[in-house]
Amino acid sequence: MSNQSLEQQQQEHLLGYRQLAVVLCLLLLLTVVTVAVSYVDLGFFNVPVALAIACGKVSLVLLFFMHLKYEGAIINISFLSTVLFLVIMIGFTFWDVAFR
Amino acid sequence: MTAPQSFYHTSSPAGLSGIRAWLLTHDHKRLGLMYLAAVFFWFVLAMVLGLLLRTELMGQGPTIMGPEVYNSMFTLHGVIMIFLFVIPAIPAIFGNFFLPIQLGTDDVFFPRLNLFSWYLFMLGGLFAIVALFAGDGFPDTGWTFYVPFSVEVDSNVGLTVSAAFILGMSSMLTGLNFVTTFHRMRDRSMGLMQIPLFTWSLYATAWVQILATPVISITFVLVMVERILGVGLFDPDKGGDPLLYQHLFWMYSHPAVYIMILPGMGVISEIIPVFSRKSIFGYKAIVWSSMGIAIAGSLVWAHHMYTSGMSDVSVFVFSLLTFLVAIPSAVKVFSWVATMYRGAIEMTPPLLLALIFIYLFTVGGLTGLVLGAVGTNIHVHDTHFVVSHFHFVMFGGTGFAFFAALHFWWPKMFGIMYRFKPAYIGASLTGIGFLFHYVPMLILGLQGMPRRYYDYLPQYETGNFLAGFGGYLLCLGIVIMFVNLLMSFRQQQPAGADPWGATTLEWSVPSPPPLHNFVAPPVVASFPYDFTTVVERAGKGGS
User: pLDDT tens, B108-118?
Assistant: First the structure.
């Protein structure tokens, strides 16, 4: 039973080459933007802007190449849990580093 | 209709026989037993090492070994006990064997990956053995491999951390298999609140295994990068930060404490209602407390670092968070005790071991609060108090849960029953020996005796002698328990499908189970701990 539903889901996941090509173009475009922005001095916003662009690229990869957009709640919650865990691991360390 | 053949007589994949039927098996039950054999070997080895250490400490000055051997031996004892016994014991043995059956399915989601995990476990163990005899011998860093010592010392740190890396991968893959099986293979009629508590505890554990283990794996890779390439990651002389290592190490190793204890709590949650003939008290509270422990336990790692020189803000925050973990742990203990209240208690060896667990784990938990509070922690940091505390949790908790699980599920795994009297004697001796062994260490720690020291001041001799004496008593009890279990193979007293009057699905299948577990589709109860039928059957004089 579970194998059948897996096959069904796999069929639903399939993305056309056209959609994949669009995502690829977007990723390449964002890479160009990343390089271009690095030549502009935005002061305090240098890092936040670079991180925002990187997050955009990561989101595209996760949503389309890794099919998260088409997955059910369990997979999405599982994925978000890992992100939350990473945020906690890094964030809590700053209580030490920032106040040492 | 003929009785189905047990999994011992049916290979998976079909057509294999002899040793090949074991070494190439995809059957979760055979893999559970293969883990049992491997874990048993490592446990006995580490127990002997621990006994030798305590023998050395029974008298002041050198007795049976030199200081270098002592240092390597406590490292080896720690590495084996943590990575090759306490972490894998319950999930890998009983989890593999019973999780699919409790979920009403025929195997784990990735059977081949399951076999691969076992091979990784064996490979990790092999690396640990090679580290013993190759090069400059086993490291003397302690199982924590703290920098800068571990990046500077000549002994086999590389091989040993590689062993831990491989064992971590095995643990992670097992966790992945369990999470996937839980979601995708569960019987369709089984809702989340119909799942047995042992399986729930394995699920919570599996998440910690998946999320936290990569952190230690990467940390060990970084240690190797610093050792081999000289990159200044942790060495302050090269611009590194030694506290970064401690953060990374404990980000895994504290959650690992919950990898160790959560499955044990699951075992106790199975045993207590069965022998109280009463529905578990607070089923949902226990489920949520398992998840709560898994989450809260991942937020408190730096309470191992109060005296390391990290910031006061960090010390304050982590101390506060540490106290949170006590809440879900206490929920479980109160639920177990409340389950027994006004129950029709039937004393058996698994229940006795479960009761010893509750007592010892509670002491372990309460001494943990002493260590979680900064003021008292600084007084007893790195003393024998800490050694005693974590043995109360790891051994008094997970160790006794392991023994309890072994006695509870032995009839199901092998289809035979053991003798009760030697089991009671063994369990009691182990419990009494445990207290003789570790209570003196609590007192020694409060008096100021440091951990990991080869020698000590004269005032600590009485305590150390008593602890050593308790150690021998403890080991004698364990030997009696194990010999009694092994003797059951000679006695061959059939156990029947449900010798305890239990209600979860594994007791509805034959002992030992057939290859695909269920001869007929499993009947999932609306609540897994409803003893109405069992009590009625007993009232009518049935078994």
Answer: 999 999 999 99
ipTM above 0.90, yes or no: no
Distance separating alpha carbons of residues B304 and A96, to the nearest angstrom = 13
CA B124 to the chain's CA centroid: 17
As a whole number of angstroms, the distance between CA B125 and CA B129 comes to 6
Q: Where are the domains positioned within chain B?
A: 7-539
Other CB atoms within 10 Å distance of the CB of residue A30:
15
Q: Which among B243, B298, B314 has CB closest to A85?
A: B298
DSSP H/E element including B321: helix B312-340
State the Cα–Cα distance between residues B529 and B543, nearest whole angstrom.
18
User: Rounded distance, CA A4 to CA A13, Å?
Assistant: 14
A65: contact with B, CB 8 A cutoff:
no
What distance in Å separates the CA atoms of residue A99 and residue B236, rounded to the nearest whole number? Answer: 19
- Average pLDDT on A17-38 reads 94
* Contact criterion met (CB < 8 Å) for B317 and A92: yes
Nearest C-alpha neighbor of B498 from the set B82, B101, B181, B129: B101
Output phi, psi for B59, to 5 deg: -125, 155
pLDDT tens readout for residues B406-435 = 999 999 999 999 999 999 999 999 999 999
* Residue ranges of A 5-44 with Cβ closer than 8 A to chain B: 6
For B211, which of A1, A6, A82 is closest by C-beta distance? Answer: A82
**What is the average per-residue pLDDT within B271-280?**
96
Nearest to B252 by CA among B224, B227, B221, B290: B221
Q: Classify domain B7-539 at the CATH topology level.
A: Cytochrome C Oxidase; Chain A (1.20.210)
